[in-house]
Specification:
Chain lengths: 248, 368
Amino acid sequence: MIKEIVIKAEGLTKRFGDFIAVNKISFNVEKGEIFGFLGANGAGKTTAMRMLCGLSIPSSGKAAVAGFDVYKQTENIKQNIGYMSQKFSLYEDLTVKENIRFYAGIYGMGRASAKEKMNNLLVQLKMSNEENNLVKSLPLGWKQKLAFSVAILHQPKIVFLDEPTGGVDPVTRREFWNLIYDAAEKGITVFVTTHYMDEAEYCNRVSIMVDGVIEALDTPSNLKKNYKAASMDEVFLQLARGAKRSSD
Amino acid sequence: MKQFIIFVKKEFYHIFRDRKSLLIIFLMPIVQIILFGFALTNEIKNSNIAVLDNSKDEATVKIIQRLDASRYFEVNTYLHSQADIENIFKSGKVRMVVVFPPNFYQSLLHSNKAQIQLLADASDPNTATTITQYATNIINDYQQELNGQTNIPYQIQPQLRMLYNPQLKGTYNFVPGVMTMILVLIAAMMTSVAIVREKEINTMEVILVSPLKPLLFIVSKAIPYIFLSLVNLITILIVSVSILDVPVNGNLFLLMAESLLFIITSVSLGLMISNFTKTQQEAQMFSLMSLLLPTLLLGGFMFPIESMPWPLQAVSNIVPSKWFYLIVKDVMIKGLGFSQVWKESLVLVAMSLVLLFISFKKFKTRLA
């Protein structure tokens, strides 16, 4: 069975002056896949992701997201993706309900469908009792789960998650990944950057970026086999040892 | 449209949840206008004066009474000789001495001419000029009254008349000034802070990734603050008319329309500022520095622009506040119509268009 390719990058490059943040990366992501994008801080993950989301124009190379060109069709791309940023991005001074309504609104969802979606979501997150509370009163883990659910509320083809679980405890991280699995089962392709190696194990395929270059790309089990490592952690350490850049 | 409504609604949530800022926004105009209107006026009230009355007749007594009765003067000392004058100035007890020559009323009746000497302490020249003017006006008033009583004019004198503001009320000057200042500050600062906040709390990224159009984003950010500024404008007008007795002499709708235009200019300034600042604090500081100072210094209501050196006069032309101040003075105080202020209005329209164009062009739909 031939899988549909939803993200296609070929020699994608981003330069900032002399600095090459992302250096000729190429990969394909299939529909419904959970694609892990790993790398140390400063390896170029976020820059690469921003190019795919239309937040940053590539310096060279080709890429298509949901079949649309990242240079010319960013508006079409925006209609088809969800995005959750590294830093928390809901409005703290708005209630849970108002945040959901707002994001549903800017994606052009009607009142009725937004309401239905919101109710389902609140039940799924077990947050029905919190719907009228301000987001700032929620624990971080809940906020992250809410942010993710909001990012996929409009049922995008692809959701981009930029280090979604930073600062969250292991139990909540596990719960968060359950949400990701649910989304993937519904056919949403998940593109996730992380530097937690245990999370890499949850992905269908993983790419490891070092100094702006993709050093390895395979399923977690194949990577471990190829690098004769017991865990993804070891794989990563072997690859990242030679890294020259250390932080953003 | 749906996107627009939901966005504007969200902005209002932000505004109404932030009680402290809300309080500042709504109280600031009232406090400032009252402060400027009463406390910080350039009007000089209750100046102590001394009188050296060498005539002591009907006319001099009346004039002294009138001076004393006015809110500008308190006659607190009666002098007896020319020599006392210098002493009392040196003691610093009075700002002005009024000297009547002997036979004041007599000469007024017979030769239709009389002189009064006004001696002012000009170590503070502005005060001296102002209070002598107050005194001259009061004396002229009296003289006019005398003239009205008979058919033969006692005296034909060049008259000093203070047009539009006969009592030289400082509030006439300050209300348009404070109005200008508050509108530009609130509209520009709030707008810039509101946009920069989205950058700071990172929601900007999410909005940029969403299909929301930049123009829609900018307009929905601006609308709530235009609305708030209009509320402020109405507050200021109510306070000025009811508490400070500064009337709206011109067409109220013209005044509102011109103010709306200025609010739009200010909001455009705010948009512009938000383009090159990254944090709320930065935006706030920048707004204060780049708007408050020029408005105060070059807006024309604190310091007359005509007496500035030409480079400053030239610079004042790019300060939108200067133009709005002229419009408000013309419309509100002088009661002039649109035909008198269309040039200034055109300048504001042009400024708004340029600012909006630049902000829109500069608005980063991308992060890097």
